[in-house]
Amino acid sequence: MKLYYAATLNPRKVCALACHLHSPVEYVHVDLAKGEHRGPQFLAPDPNGKVLVLEAENEAIWESNVSRPRRCCVGRGPTATVML
User: Percent of the chain beyond pLDDT 70?
Assistant: First the structure.
């Protein structure tokens, strides 16, 4: 999995959650000041050009409101359970 993030509040929350759960995530920093979120490489998984994107296999979750950690996580690592 790849997690495209920027140094802003909501992406930091998701990065902290992934780190806490020991998720097998490759972190990809997106520099907003350089406009990397508007480049073709970033727009491929996220046509809206908004940061935070979680890319797994052939799918990408790019709606930042969906990605916010508003869930209760039980356990750690790949066997963690997410309760809505």
Answer: 74
Q: What's the distance, CA 81 to chain centroid?
A: 18
Q: What is the pTM of this model?
A: 0.70
Indicate the residue type of 9: L
Strands 81-83 and 72-74: antiparallel
Indicate the pairing of strand 72-74 with strand 53-56: unpaired
* Domain 2-83 superfamily per CATH: Glutaredoxin (3.40.30.10)
Q: Which residues of 1-21 are buried (b: 16+ CB within 10 A; e: fewer)?
A: eebbbbeeebbebbbebbeeb
